[in-house]
Amino acid sequence: MKKMNLKILTLALLxxxxxxxxxACSQKKSLVKWHPVEVTAAPNxxxxxxxxRAALNHxxxxxxxHKFYAMQRKEVCDLCHVESFCTDCHAHKEEIKPSDKxxxxxxxxxxxxxxxxxxxxxxxxxxxxxCFPCHGRMNNERCKVCHK
Amino acid sequence: xxxxxxxQSKTYLQSREGVDSSKFLPFYEYFDFKAEDFASLxxxxxxxxxxxxxxxxxxDESYGKKTNNDLQYxxxxxxxxxxxxxxxxxxxxxxxxxxxxxxxxAYARTDLVxxxxxxxxxxxxxETNFDGRSGDAVYGGRISEAYPGLYRLGFSYLKERNxxxxxxxxxxxxxxxxxxxxxxxxGTSSYNALTRAWMQHNYNLLLGPFYNFxxxxxxxxxxxxxxxxxxxxxxxxxxxxxLIDLNEKLSTEGGELSYSFGKTGLSAEYKxxxxxxxxxxxxxxxxxxxxxxxxxxxGVSFHxxxxxxxxxxxxxxxxxAYKKLGKADITADLFAVSYDVEINGVKNAYSASLASGxxxxxxxxxxxxxxxxxxxxxxxxxxxxxxxVYNFGSPYGAKRGK
Lengths: 148, 402
Description:
The structure holds 2 protein chains of 2 kinds. Chain A is mainly α. In chain A, 37% of the residues lie in helices and 0% in strands. Chain A has one domain (29-145). Chain A is built from 6 helices and no strands. The radius of gyration of chain A is 21 Å and the shape is flat. By secondary structure, chain B is mostly beta strands. Chain B is 2% helix and 73% strand. Chain B is built from 2 helices and 23 strands. Chain B has helices at residues 224-227, 395-399, and strands at residues 4-17, 23-24, 26-41, 44-57, 67-80, 86-96, 99-111, 116-125, 137-147, 151-162, 165-180, 183-192, 197-210, 213-223, 249-261, 264-275, 279-292, 296-307, 313-325, 328-343, 346-361, 364-375, 378-393. Chain B has a 22-stranded antiparallel beta barrel. In chain B, strand 18 and strand 19 (313-325) form a beta hairpin. The longest helix of chain B has 5 residues, at 395-399. Chain B is globular. In chain B, 33% of the residues are buried.
Protein backbone atom coordinates (compact mmCIF):
# COMPACT_ATOMS: atom_id res chain seq x y z
CA MET A 1 0.00 0.00 0.00
CA LYS A 2 2.84 2.36 0.97
CA LYS A 3 4.63 1.58 -2.31
CA MET A 4 1.44 2.43 -4.20
CA ASN A 5 1.09 5.77 -2.39
CA LEU A 6 4.71 6.57 -3.12
CA LYS A 7 4.18 5.85 -6.81
CA ILE A 8 1.10 8.12 -6.93
CA LEU A 9 2.99 10.88 -5.10
CA THR A 10 5.95 10.60 -7.46
CA LEU A 11 3.63 10.70 -10.48
CA ALA A 12 1.81 13.75 -9.10
CA LEU A 13 5.09 15.58 -8.46
CA LEU A 14 6.33 14.76 -11.96
CA UNK A 15 3.07 16.01 -13.45
CA UNK A 16 3.28 19.22 -11.40
CA UNK A 17 6.88 19.75 -12.53
CA UNK A 18 5.87 19.14 -16.16
CA UNK A 19 2.96 21.62 -15.93
CA UNK A 20 5.23 24.20 -14.23
CA UNK A 21 7.85 23.77 -16.95
CA UNK A 22 5.29 24.08 -19.74
CA UNK A 23 3.79 27.13 -18.04
CA ALA A 24 7.19 28.79 -17.71
CA CYS A 25 7.73 28.37 -21.46
CA SER A 26 4.30 29.75 -22.36
CA GLN A 27 4.46 33.51 -22.59
CA LYS A 28 1.96 34.11 -25.37
CA LYS A 29 -0.18 37.19 -24.82
CA SER A 30 -3.59 36.55 -23.29
CA LEU A 31 -6.75 37.17 -25.26
CA VAL A 32 -7.85 40.77 -25.14
CA LYS A 33 -10.48 41.43 -22.47
CA TRP A 34 -13.02 42.79 -24.92
CA HIS A 35 -13.61 42.26 -28.59
CA PRO A 36 -11.83 45.28 -30.12
CA VAL A 37 -14.88 46.26 -32.15
CA GLU A 38 -18.31 46.48 -30.56
CA VAL A 39 -20.47 43.71 -31.98
CA THR A 40 -24.19 44.14 -32.39
CA ALA A 41 -26.73 41.40 -31.77
CA ALA A 42 -26.40 38.05 -33.58
CA PRO A 43 -23.05 38.75 -35.30
CA ASN A 44 -21.88 37.00 -38.41
CA UNK A 45 -18.26 36.46 -37.34
CA UNK A 46 -17.38 35.23 -40.84
CA UNK A 47 -17.88 38.77 -42.18
CA UNK A 48 -14.48 39.69 -40.73
CA UNK A 49 -12.84 36.39 -39.73
CA UNK A 50 -11.97 33.93 -42.45
CA UNK A 51 -10.37 31.37 -40.12
CA UNK A 52 -11.88 29.08 -37.44
CA ARG A 53 -13.50 32.06 -35.72
CA ALA A 54 -16.06 32.09 -38.52
CA ALA A 55 -17.45 28.96 -36.87
CA LEU A 56 -18.90 31.21 -34.17
CA ASN A 57 -21.40 32.80 -36.56
CA HIS A 58 -24.51 33.46 -34.45
CA UNK A 59 -27.00 31.94 -36.85
CA UNK A 60 -30.61 31.62 -35.60
CA UNK A 61 -29.85 28.07 -34.38
CA UNK A 62 -26.60 29.01 -32.62
CA UNK A 63 -28.22 28.63 -29.19
CA UNK A 64 -28.66 24.90 -29.85
CA UNK A 65 -24.90 24.33 -30.17
CA HIS A 66 -23.35 27.18 -28.16
CA LYS A 67 -22.62 24.69 -25.35
CA PHE A 68 -19.89 23.02 -27.39
CA TYR A 69 -17.95 26.26 -27.80
CA ALA A 70 -18.53 27.35 -24.20
CA MET A 71 -17.33 24.03 -22.77
CA GLN A 72 -14.01 24.38 -24.59
CA ARG A 73 -13.16 28.09 -24.39
CA LYS A 74 -15.64 30.17 -22.43
CA GLU A 75 -13.18 33.09 -22.39
CA VAL A 76 -13.94 33.54 -26.09
CA CYS A 77 -17.62 34.03 -25.19
CA ASP A 78 -16.50 36.53 -22.53
CA LEU A 79 -15.04 38.75 -25.25
CA CYS A 80 -18.57 39.94 -26.03
CA HIS A 81 -20.80 38.67 -23.19
CA VAL A 82 -20.86 39.64 -19.54
CA GLU A 83 -21.58 36.94 -16.95
CA SER A 84 -25.22 37.94 -16.48
CA PHE A 85 -25.88 37.01 -20.10
CA CYS A 86 -25.16 33.38 -19.17
CA THR A 87 -27.00 33.46 -15.82
CA ASP A 88 -30.14 34.73 -17.54
CA CYS A 89 -30.63 31.05 -18.44
CA HIS A 90 -28.00 29.10 -16.50
CA ALA A 91 -29.59 30.03 -13.25
CA HIS A 92 -29.68 28.83 -9.68
CA LYS A 93 -33.08 29.56 -8.12
CA GLU A 94 -34.67 31.78 -10.75
CA GLU A 95 -38.45 31.95 -10.76
CA ILE A 96 -39.43 33.49 -14.07
CA LYS A 97 -36.45 33.24 -16.37
CA PRO A 98 -35.57 32.33 -19.08
CA SER A 99 -38.93 33.02 -20.72
CA ASP A 100 -37.99 36.70 -20.87
CA LYS A 101 -34.93 36.16 -23.09
CA UNK A 102 -34.98 37.71 -26.58
CA UNK A 103 -38.70 38.42 -26.72
CA UNK A 104 -37.87 41.10 -29.28
CA UNK A 105 -35.86 38.64 -31.44
CA UNK A 106 -38.34 35.83 -32.18
CA UNK A 107 -36.23 34.43 -35.02
CA UNK A 108 -33.68 33.05 -32.54
CA UNK A 109 -34.09 29.42 -31.51
CA UNK A 110 -34.64 29.23 -27.76
CA UNK A 111 -35.94 26.33 -25.68
CA UNK A 112 -38.80 28.11 -23.88
CA UNK A 113 -40.82 30.06 -26.39
CA UNK A 114 -44.57 30.45 -26.06
CA UNK A 115 -46.69 28.66 -23.46
CA UNK A 116 -43.88 26.39 -22.36
CA UNK A 117 -45.52 25.28 -19.12
CA UNK A 118 -47.90 23.20 -21.22
CA UNK A 119 -45.32 22.06 -23.76
CA UNK A 120 -42.77 20.96 -21.14
CA UNK A 121 -44.99 18.01 -20.22
CA UNK A 122 -44.55 16.70 -23.76
CA UNK A 123 -40.91 17.72 -24.23
CA UNK A 124 -40.05 16.12 -20.90
CA UNK A 125 -41.37 12.80 -22.18
CA UNK A 126 -39.61 13.14 -25.54
CA UNK A 127 -36.17 13.86 -24.12
CA UNK A 128 -35.82 14.69 -20.41
CA UNK A 129 -32.06 14.92 -20.88
CA UNK A 130 -32.60 18.23 -22.64
CA CYS A 131 -34.07 19.65 -19.40
CA PHE A 132 -31.54 18.13 -17.01
CA PRO A 133 -28.41 20.28 -17.54
CA CYS A 134 -30.26 23.42 -16.43
CA HIS A 135 -32.92 21.97 -14.08
CA GLY A 136 -31.44 18.74 -12.73
CA ARG A 137 -29.64 20.23 -9.76
CA MET A 138 -30.34 23.96 -10.03
CA ASN A 139 -33.10 26.24 -11.17
CA ASN A 140 -35.73 23.67 -10.21
CA GLU A 141 -37.46 25.23 -7.20
CA ARG A 142 -40.49 25.87 -9.36
CA CYS A 143 -40.60 22.22 -10.44
CA LYS A 144 -41.45 21.29 -6.84
CA VAL A 145 -44.85 22.98 -7.11
CA CYS A 146 -46.01 19.91 -9.08
CA HIS A 147 -43.12 17.43 -8.81
CA LYS A 148 -43.36 16.83 -5.04
CA UNK B 1 -11.46 53.29 -7.76
CA UNK B 2 -12.58 51.17 -10.69
CA UNK B 3 -11.62 52.61 -14.03
CA UNK B 4 -14.44 50.74 -15.73
CA UNK B 5 -17.67 50.08 -13.87
CA UNK B 6 -20.59 48.84 -15.88
CA UNK B 7 -23.77 46.96 -15.15
CA GLN B 8 -27.45 46.60 -15.56
CA SER B 9 -30.60 46.91 -13.51
CA LYS B 10 -33.64 44.96 -14.68
CA THR B 11 -36.95 45.64 -12.99
CA TYR B 12 -39.88 43.33 -13.71
CA LEU B 13 -43.54 43.32 -12.83
CA GLN B 14 -45.41 40.19 -13.84
CA SER B 15 -49.14 39.51 -13.69
CA ARG B 16 -50.48 35.97 -13.86
CA GLU B 17 -53.10 33.63 -12.47
CA GLY B 18 -52.65 30.32 -10.61
CA VAL B 19 -54.57 27.10 -11.32
CA ASP B 20 -56.63 27.83 -8.15
CA SER B 21 -57.51 31.34 -9.46
CA SER B 22 -54.93 33.03 -7.23
CA LYS B 23 -53.74 36.39 -8.58
CA PHE B 24 -50.00 36.85 -8.65
CA LEU B 25 -48.21 40.15 -9.07
CA PRO B 26 -44.54 39.51 -8.35
CA PHE B 27 -42.13 42.44 -8.53
CA TYR B 28 -38.50 41.57 -9.32
CA GLU B 29 -35.22 43.43 -9.35
CA TYR B 30 -32.24 41.84 -11.09
CA PHE B 31 -28.98 43.69 -10.62
CA ASP B 32 -25.52 42.98 -11.97
CA PHE B 33 -22.27 44.87 -12.37
CA LYS B 34 -18.65 44.38 -13.31
CA ALA B 35 -15.85 46.50 -11.87
CA GLU B 36 -12.63 46.30 -13.85
CA ASP B 37 -9.12 47.60 -13.42
CA PHE B 38 -9.82 48.59 -9.84
CA ALA B 39 -6.52 47.17 -8.77
CA SER B 40 -3.38 46.00 -10.47
CA LEU B 41 -0.95 43.51 -9.05
CA UNK B 42 2.16 43.85 -11.22
CA UNK B 43 1.03 42.60 -14.66
CA UNK B 44 -2.19 41.13 -13.29
CA UNK B 45 -5.57 42.70 -13.70
CA UNK B 46 -8.20 42.37 -11.00
CA UNK B 47 -11.94 42.62 -11.58
CA UNK B 48 -15.10 41.92 -9.58
CA UNK B 49 -18.36 40.53 -10.94
CA UNK B 50 -21.73 40.52 -9.20
CA UNK B 51 -25.25 39.38 -10.05
CA UNK B 52 -28.32 38.88 -7.86
CA UNK B 53 -32.06 39.26 -7.67
CA UNK B 54 -34.89 39.88 -5.23
CA UNK B 55 -38.67 39.46 -5.45
CA UNK B 56 -41.63 40.67 -3.48
CA UNK B 57 -45.28 39.77 -4.09
CA UNK B 58 -47.68 42.67 -4.52
CA UNK B 59 -50.73 40.35 -4.54
CA ASP B 60 -51.12 36.68 -3.53
CA GLU B 61 -48.12 34.78 -2.30
CA SER B 62 -46.19 32.91 -5.02
CA TYR B 63 -43.84 29.93 -4.63
CA GLY B 64 -44.70 29.64 -0.92
CA LYS B 65 -42.89 32.85 0.07
CA LYS B 66 -43.93 36.48 -0.02
CA THR B 67 -40.35 37.54 -0.72
CA ASN B 68 -37.34 35.74 -2.11
CA ASN B 69 -33.82 36.51 -3.35
CA ASP B 70 -30.69 34.79 -4.59
CA LEU B 71 -27.07 35.55 -5.23
CA GLN B 72 -26.38 34.45 -8.80
CA TYR B 73 -22.65 35.08 -8.78
CA UNK B 74 -20.06 37.20 -6.97
CA UNK B 75 -16.43 36.59 -7.73
CA UNK B 76 -13.04 38.21 -7.99
CA UNK B 77 -10.94 37.54 -11.08
CA UNK B 78 -7.17 37.90 -11.15
CA UNK B 79 -6.00 37.73 -14.74
CA UNK B 80 -2.47 37.69 -16.15
CA UNK B 81 -1.55 39.41 -19.37
CA UNK B 82 0.09 36.23 -20.66
CA UNK B 83 -1.00 32.62 -21.27
CA UNK B 84 -4.68 33.36 -20.50
CA UNK B 85 -3.85 32.63 -16.89
CA UNK B 86 -6.70 33.50 -14.56
CA UNK B 87 -7.94 32.74 -11.06
CA UNK B 88 -11.55 33.26 -9.97
CA UNK B 89 -12.59 33.28 -6.31
CA UNK B 90 -16.15 33.40 -5.01
CA UNK B 91 -19.51 32.16 -6.33
CA UNK B 92 -18.92 31.39 -9.97
CA UNK B 93 -20.15 29.39 -12.90
CA UNK B 94 -17.65 26.91 -14.35
CA UNK B 95 -17.89 25.52 -17.86
CA UNK B 96 -15.08 23.09 -18.66
CA UNK B 97 -15.90 20.07 -20.81
CA UNK B 98 -18.45 17.92 -19.00
CA UNK B 99 -18.25 20.28 -16.03
CA UNK B 100 -21.09 22.79 -15.87
CA UNK B 101 -21.33 23.84 -12.25
CA UNK B 102 -22.14 26.77 -10.01
CA UNK B 103 -19.62 26.66 -7.17
CA UNK B 104 -18.61 28.62 -4.08
CA UNK B 105 -14.90 28.18 -4.46
CA ALA B 106 -11.90 28.73 -6.71
CA TYR B 107 -11.29 28.18 -10.42
CA ALA B 108 -7.86 28.48 -12.08
CA ARG B 109 -6.85 27.96 -15.70
CA THR B 110 -3.91 28.65 -17.94
CA ASP B 111 -2.49 27.90 -21.36
CA LEU B 112 0.73 25.90 -21.53
CA VAL B 113 2.97 25.32 -24.52
CA UNK B 114 1.95 23.58 -27.76
CA UNK B 115 -1.77 24.28 -27.44
CA UNK B 116 -2.10 22.53 -24.11
CA UNK B 117 -4.45 24.14 -21.62
CA UNK B 118 -5.25 23.10 -18.05
CA UNK B 119 -8.03 24.13 -15.68
CA UNK B 120 -8.86 23.09 -12.13
CA UNK B 121 -11.55 24.04 -9.65
CA UNK B 122 -12.79 23.16 -6.19
CA UNK B 123 -15.35 24.30 -3.66
CA UNK B 124 -18.85 23.72 -2.39
CA UNK B 125 -21.58 23.08 -5.00
CA UNK B 126 -24.36 25.64 -5.29
CA GLU B 127 -27.43 23.51 -5.90
CA THR B 128 -31.03 23.50 -4.84
CA ASN B 129 -30.87 22.65 -1.15
CA PHE B 130 -32.31 19.29 -0.28
CA ASP B 131 -30.26 18.21 2.72
CA GLY B 132 -28.06 21.15 3.68
CA ARG B 133 -24.49 21.87 2.57
CA SER B 134 -22.54 20.28 5.38
CA GLY B 135 -20.01 17.76 4.05
CA ASP B 136 -20.61 18.82 0.43
CA ALA B 137 -17.70 19.36 -1.93
CA VAL B 138 -17.02 19.43 -5.63
CA TYR B 139 -13.74 19.48 -7.52
CA GLY B 140 -12.30 18.61 -10.88
CA GLY B 141 -10.58 19.96 -13.92
CA ARG B 142 -9.88 19.67 -17.59
CA ILE B 143 -6.85 19.26 -19.81
CA SER B 144 -7.03 20.00 -23.51
CA GLU B 145 -4.78 20.13 -26.50
CA ALA B 146 -5.35 22.10 -29.68
CA TYR B 147 -3.89 22.76 -33.07
CA PRO B 148 -5.16 26.25 -33.87
CA GLY B 149 -7.77 26.24 -36.57
CA LEU B 150 -7.87 22.46 -36.90
CA TYR B 151 -8.93 20.73 -33.69
CA ARG B 152 -9.30 20.97 -29.95
CA LEU B 153 -9.61 17.85 -27.82
CA GLY B 154 -10.31 17.89 -24.09
CA PHE B 155 -10.66 15.50 -21.18
CA SER B 156 -12.49 16.62 -18.07
CA TYR B 157 -13.26 15.18 -14.66
CA LEU B 158 -15.65 16.05 -11.85
CA LYS B 159 -16.24 14.60 -8.43
CA GLU B 160 -18.99 15.72 -6.08
CA ARG B 161 -19.50 14.60 -2.51
CA ASN B 162 -22.71 15.07 -0.56
CA UNK B 163 -22.68 14.57 3.21
CA UNK B 164 -19.14 13.20 2.83
CA UNK B 165 -20.29 10.41 0.53
CA UNK B 166 -19.79 10.15 -3.22
CA UNK B 167 -22.68 11.82 -5.07
CA UNK B 168 -21.33 12.17 -8.60
CA UNK B 169 -18.16 11.19 -10.40
CA UNK B 170 -18.11 12.05 -14.07
CA UNK B 171 -15.49 11.96 -16.78
CA UNK B 172 -15.71 12.99 -20.36
CA UNK B 173 -14.21 14.07 -23.59
CA UNK B 174 -15.00 17.01 -25.85
CA UNK B 175 -14.06 17.57 -29.45
CA UNK B 176 -13.98 20.38 -31.97
CA UNK B 177 -12.62 19.49 -35.41
CA UNK B 178 -12.66 21.71 -38.48
CA UNK B 179 -10.54 20.11 -41.23
CA UNK B 180 -11.84 22.48 -43.91
CA UNK B 181 -13.83 25.71 -43.79
CA UNK B 182 -17.04 23.96 -44.80
CA UNK B 183 -17.01 21.07 -42.33
CA UNK B 184 -17.05 21.11 -38.55
CA UNK B 185 -17.51 18.39 -35.94
CA UNK B 186 -18.60 19.27 -32.41
CA GLY B 187 -19.19 16.72 -29.73
CA THR B 188 -18.93 15.42 -26.23
CA SER B 189 -19.14 12.09 -24.43
CA SER B 190 -19.61 11.72 -20.69
CA TYR B 191 -19.03 8.69 -18.48
CA ASN B 192 -20.50 7.98 -15.06
CA ALA B 193 -17.66 6.58 -12.95
CA LEU B 194 -20.06 5.58 -10.14
CA THR B 195 -22.35 3.44 -12.30
CA ARG B 196 -19.42 2.55 -14.60
CA ALA B 197 -21.32 3.28 -17.82
CA TRP B 198 -21.58 5.94 -20.49
CA MET B 199 -24.07 8.68 -19.66
CA GLN B 200 -24.32 10.43 -22.97
CA HIS B 201 -22.79 10.90 -26.41
CA ASN B 202 -23.72 14.03 -28.34
CA TYR B 203 -22.15 14.87 -31.70
CA ASN B 204 -22.90 17.46 -34.37
CA LEU B 205 -21.63 17.63 -37.93
CA LEU B 206 -22.00 20.98 -39.70
CA LEU B 207 -21.51 21.17 -43.47
CA GLY B 208 -21.58 24.17 -45.72
CA PRO B 209 -22.45 26.61 -46.92
CA PHE B 210 -22.52 25.24 -50.47
CA TYR B 211 -24.33 27.56 -52.88
CA ASN B 212 -26.32 28.96 -49.93
CA PHE B 213 -27.15 25.49 -48.63
CA UNK B 214 -25.96 24.31 -45.22
CA UNK B 215 -26.59 21.11 -43.32
CA UNK B 216 -26.50 20.51 -39.57
CA UNK B 217 -26.75 16.93 -38.36
CA UNK B 218 -26.86 15.62 -34.81
CA UNK B 219 -26.61 12.21 -33.16
CA UNK B 220 -27.05 11.48 -29.47
CA UNK B 221 -27.23 8.45 -27.21
CA UNK B 222 -28.41 8.72 -23.60
CA UNK B 223 -28.67 6.06 -20.89
CA UNK B 224 -31.26 7.36 -18.38
CA UNK B 225 -30.03 5.19 -15.49
CA UNK B 226 -26.53 6.61 -15.82
CA UNK B 227 -27.41 10.15 -16.91
CA UNK B 228 -30.07 11.15 -14.36
CA UNK B 229 -27.98 10.69 -11.26
CA UNK B 230 -27.36 13.26 -8.57
CA UNK B 231 -30.57 15.18 -9.14
CA UNK B 232 -32.15 17.46 -6.54
CA UNK B 233 -35.71 17.23 -7.83
CA UNK B 234 -38.19 14.38 -8.09
CA UNK B 235 -38.94 15.48 -11.67
CA UNK B 236 -35.90 13.44 -12.76
CA UNK B 237 -36.27 10.58 -10.32
CA UNK B 238 -37.49 7.86 -12.66
CA UNK B 239 -38.61 4.41 -11.61
CA UNK B 240 -38.48 1.15 -13.57
CA UNK B 241 -42.30 1.12 -13.60
CA UNK B 242 -42.92 4.86 -13.99
CA LEU B 243 -44.17 6.91 -16.95
CA ILE B 244 -40.53 7.22 -17.95
CA ASP B 245 -38.66 3.98 -17.36
CA LEU B 246 -35.37 4.34 -15.50
CA ASN B 247 -33.83 1.72 -17.77
CA GLU B 248 -34.74 3.64 -20.91
CA LYS B 249 -32.07 4.38 -23.48
CA LEU B 250 -32.63 7.01 -26.13
CA SER B 251 -30.88 7.52 -29.45
CA THR B 252 -31.59 10.49 -31.68
CA GLU B 253 -30.46 11.20 -35.19
CA GLY B 254 -31.49 14.17 -37.20
CA GLY B 255 -30.60 17.19 -39.18
CA GLU B 256 -31.62 20.51 -40.59
CA LEU B 257 -31.05 21.49 -44.20
CA SER B 258 -31.11 25.25 -44.67
CA TYR B 259 -31.17 27.40 -47.74
CA SER B 260 -30.70 31.14 -47.49
CA PHE B 261 -31.11 33.76 -50.18
CA GLY B 262 -30.49 37.28 -49.00
CA LYS B 263 -32.52 37.95 -45.89
CA THR B 264 -34.78 34.98 -46.47
CA GLY B 265 -34.13 31.51 -45.10
CA LEU B 266 -35.88 28.22 -45.68
CA SER B 267 -35.13 25.05 -43.75
CA ALA B 268 -36.36 21.50 -43.42
CA GLU B 269 -35.84 19.50 -40.22
CA TYR B 270 -36.03 15.86 -39.29
CA LYS B 271 -35.26 14.13 -36.01
CA UNK B 272 -35.74 10.47 -35.17
CA UNK B 273 -36.14 9.41 -31.53
CA UNK B 274 -35.43 5.72 -30.92
CA UNK B 275 -36.32 4.47 -27.46
CA UNK B 276 -35.22 1.02 -26.35
CA UNK B 277 -38.44 0.64 -24.31
CA UNK B 278 -41.01 3.26 -25.34
CA UNK B 279 -40.77 2.78 -29.11
CA UNK B 280 -39.89 5.33 -31.77
CA UNK B 281 -40.98 8.83 -32.67
CA UNK B 282 -40.31 11.09 -35.63
CA UNK B 283 -40.32 14.88 -35.59
CA UNK B 284 -40.18 16.71 -38.89
CA UNK B 285 -41.19 19.99 -40.41
CA UNK B 286 -40.14 23.19 -42.11
CA UNK B 287 -39.41 26.83 -41.34
CA UNK B 288 -39.50 29.93 -43.49
CA UNK B 289 -38.19 33.27 -42.27
CA UNK B 290 -37.39 36.75 -43.47
CA UNK B 291 -35.06 38.74 -41.24
CA UNK B 292 -33.88 42.31 -41.49
CA UNK B 293 -32.87 42.87 -37.84
CA UNK B 294 -32.80 46.66 -38.07
CA UNK B 295 -36.20 46.96 -39.76
CA UNK B 296 -38.55 44.02 -39.67
CA UNK B 297 -38.81 40.28 -39.87
CA UNK B 298 -41.31 37.48 -40.01
CA GLY B 299 -41.37 33.69 -39.93
CA VAL B 300 -43.62 30.65 -40.00
CA SER B 301 -42.98 27.04 -39.07
CA PHE B 302 -44.82 23.75 -39.09
CA HIS B 303 -43.85 20.44 -37.50
CA UNK B 304 -45.32 17.01 -37.00
CA UNK B 305 -44.48 14.74 -34.06
CA UNK B 306 -45.39 11.19 -34.82
CA UNK B 307 -44.77 8.78 -31.95
CA UNK B 308 -46.15 5.50 -30.70
CA UNK B 309 -47.83 6.97 -27.60
CA UNK B 310 -50.83 9.35 -27.70
CA UNK B 311 -48.94 12.28 -26.16
CA UNK B 312 -46.37 12.04 -28.95
CA UNK B 313 -48.85 12.58 -31.77
CA UNK B 314 -49.39 16.24 -32.56
CA UNK B 315 -48.83 19.08 -35.01
CA UNK B 316 -47.22 22.33 -33.93
CA UNK B 317 -47.36 25.65 -35.76
CA UNK B 318 -45.72 29.00 -35.18
CA UNK B 319 -45.94 32.43 -36.81
CA UNK B 320 -44.17 35.60 -35.69
CA ALA B 321 -43.39 39.09 -36.90
CA TYR B 322 -41.46 42.05 -35.55
CA LYS B 323 -40.99 45.65 -36.59
CA LYS B 324 -38.40 48.20 -35.45
CA LEU B 325 -39.55 51.81 -35.44
CA GLY B 326 -36.66 54.03 -34.40
CA LYS B 327 -36.48 53.79 -30.60
CA ALA B 328 -39.46 51.45 -30.48
CA ASP B 329 -40.15 47.89 -31.53
CA ILE B 330 -43.15 45.61 -31.60
CA THR B 331 -43.29 41.80 -31.78
CA ALA B 332 -46.19 39.38 -32.25
CA ASP B 333 -45.77 35.63 -31.70
CA LEU B 334 -48.34 32.87 -32.14
CA PHE B 335 -47.93 29.19 -31.19
CA ALA B 336 -50.50 26.45 -31.77
CA VAL B 337 -50.47 22.74 -31.02
CA SER B 338 -53.05 20.32 -32.34
CA TYR B 339 -53.11 16.98 -30.47
CA ASP B 340 -54.29 13.82 -32.20
CA VAL B 341 -55.85 12.73 -28.91
CA GLU B 342 -57.40 15.25 -26.53
CA ILE B 343 -55.57 16.13 -23.32
CA ASN B 344 -57.97 17.12 -20.51
CA GLY B 345 -60.66 17.54 -23.17
CA VAL B 346 -58.56 19.97 -25.22
CA LYS B 347 -57.55 19.11 -28.78
CA ASN B 348 -56.12 22.48 -29.85
CA ALA B 349 -53.89 24.59 -27.63
CA TYR B 350 -52.51 27.97 -28.52
CA SER B 351 -50.78 31.02 -27.12
CA ALA B 352 -50.50 34.49 -28.61
CA SER B 353 -48.27 37.26 -27.35
CA LEU B 354 -47.76 40.89 -28.23
CA ALA B 355 -44.62 42.64 -26.98
CA SER B 356 -43.40 46.17 -27.38
CA GLY B 357 -40.37 48.13 -26.18
CA UNK B 358 -39.22 51.74 -26.24
CA UNK B 359 -35.94 53.43 -25.33
CA UNK B 360 -37.24 56.15 -23.01
CA UNK B 361 -33.66 57.32 -22.45
CA UNK B 362 -30.42 56.30 -24.18
CA UNK B 363 -29.54 53.75 -21.51
CA UNK B 364 -33.04 52.78 -20.43
CA UNK B 365 -35.61 50.62 -22.21
CA UNK B 366 -39.19 50.12 -21.11
CA UNK B 367 -41.02 47.12 -22.51
CA UNK B 368 -44.26 45.31 -21.93
CA UNK B 369 -45.99 42.24 -23.25
CA UNK B 370 -49.25 40.45 -22.90
CA UNK B 371 -49.87 36.77 -23.58
CA UNK B 372 -53.14 34.93 -24.02
CA UNK B 373 -53.19 31.14 -23.86
CA UNK B 374 -55.68 28.30 -24.11
CA UNK B 375 -54.32 24.89 -23.19
CA UNK B 376 -55.18 21.59 -21.45
CA UNK B 377 -54.69 23.22 -18.04
CA UNK B 378 -56.30 26.65 -18.52
CA UNK B 379 -59.47 27.54 -20.46
CA UNK B 380 -57.95 30.93 -20.93
CA UNK B 381 -54.88 32.39 -19.34
CA UNK B 382 -53.75 36.00 -19.58
CA UNK B 383 -50.27 37.02 -18.51
CA UNK B 384 -48.81 40.51 -18.43
CA UNK B 385 -45.21 41.58 -18.07
CA UNK B 386 -43.63 45.02 -17.71
CA UNK B 387 -39.86 45.48 -17.71
CA UNK B 388 -37.50 48.39 -17.37
CA VAL B 389 -33.83 47.82 -18.16
CA TYR B 390 -31.24 50.40 -17.27
CA ASN B 391 -27.58 50.15 -18.30
CA PHE B 392 -25.10 52.14 -16.29
CA GLY B 393 -21.41 52.93 -16.32
CA SER B 394 -19.20 52.43 -19.31
CA PRO B 395 -21.49 52.55 -22.34
CA TYR B 396 -19.35 49.97 -24.12
CA GLY B 397 -19.22 47.51 -21.24
CA ALA B 398 -22.85 47.88 -20.18
CA LYS B 399 -24.25 46.92 -23.56
CA ARG B 400 -22.19 43.80 -23.92
CA GLY B 401 -24.17 40.73 -24.83
CA LYS B 402 -27.48 42.17 -23.73
